[in-house]
Amino acid sequence: MSSLIDRILGLLYPRKCICCGERISDDEDLCKFCRHWIERIPTEKRCPECGLIKDHCQCSICAYHFVKVVAPFYNSGLAQRGFYRLKFGLRRHYAKFFAREMAKTVHSEFFGVTFDAVCYVPISRKHFRRRGFDQSKLLATEISKCLKTPLLQDAILCQFGGKTQHELSWKERFTAIRQKYRVGMDVKGRILLVDDIKTSGATLDECARELLFAGADEVYCVAALISDPKFDVTSEYTKEICAKS
Q1: For residues 135 and 86, is the Cβ–Cβ distance under 8 A?
Q2: Cα–Cα distance measured from residue 195 to residue 122, given in angstroms and rounded to the nearest whole number
Q3: Beta-sheet pairing, 69-70 with 218-226
Q4: SS3 sequence, 130-197?
Q5: CB-CB contact of 71 with 227 (8 Å)
Q6: Model's pTM, two decimal places?
Q7: Residue 220 phi, psi (nearest 5)
Q8: How do the residues of the chain divide into helix, strand and coil, expressed in percent and rounded to 5?
């Protein structure tokens, strides 16, 4: 009976590629074209600490509180389109695909590192009311399952909203983020901190600082996308196109 129901649902709601919307089989997330052309971040080209390509490395001007940050995709092209459909187009089920890719990246690039817990950077109440979900929480929930590591629910609290990070300059981000987050519980051991998009690293740095203050030994970070702070990649036009597609 369940098999028949699955077939009927498959006809009514066919599975589509998360990037382009083309119809695909039920066991896939991307069509052949997008699977081939989606731009992944090659390990050899990026700085292991700040996560950016080595030509744009920020480590000489920033002393982060986290140890390292990684992400499977650049914040551009097909990966950006698919993730913005999740974030702004309310396709929350896309989180499973990105979380699996993030977990694979953690396995390969943090090889040999074990984590005591997974936590995430929360969104503001205003954004939660608008979207009805927290994309970083969705990602962290799936990653904790993939890594078989406990998830710290609501460990980090967002105390106020203010301007979103992409509206600020690179320097303004580090100033505006201070005291925006706090950790509401005691934390121990090595923590994997999850965020959706890493640009300047200001948000991850502030959350890592609070986690260390709350008792964490070390903080490693993983994001779905990494973008270059020299470019504005999150335009209102992009959000609108992704929400409609």
Answers
A1: yes
A2: 8
A3: parallel
A4: HHCCCHHHHHHHHHHHHHCCCECCCCEEECCCCCCHHHCCHHHHHHHCCCCEEECCCCCCEEEEEEEE
A5: no
A6: 0.85
A7: -110, 155
A8: 40, 15, 40
List, for residues 138-171, the tens digit of each pLDDT value: 999 999 999 999 999 999 999 876 656 556 565 6
Mean pLDDT of the chain: 84
Cα(146)–Cα(68) distance, rounded to whole angstroms? 20
Quick check: 221 pLDDT over 80? yes
Find the length of the chain.
Answer: 245
Tokens of 37: 């052309």
Torsion angle of the four alpha carbons 157, 204, 42, 24, in this order, in degrees rounded to the nearest 10: 20
Please write the tens of the pLDDT for every residue from 158-207. Answer: 987 665 655 656 566 666 677 789 998 999 999 999 999 998 888 999 99
Instruction: Report yes or no: 152 and 186 within 8 Å, Cβ to Cβ.
Output: no
- Cβ-in-10-Å burial (0-12, 13-18, 19+) of 128 comes to middle
Q: 189: left (phi > 0), else alpha (psi -120 to 50), else beta?
A: left
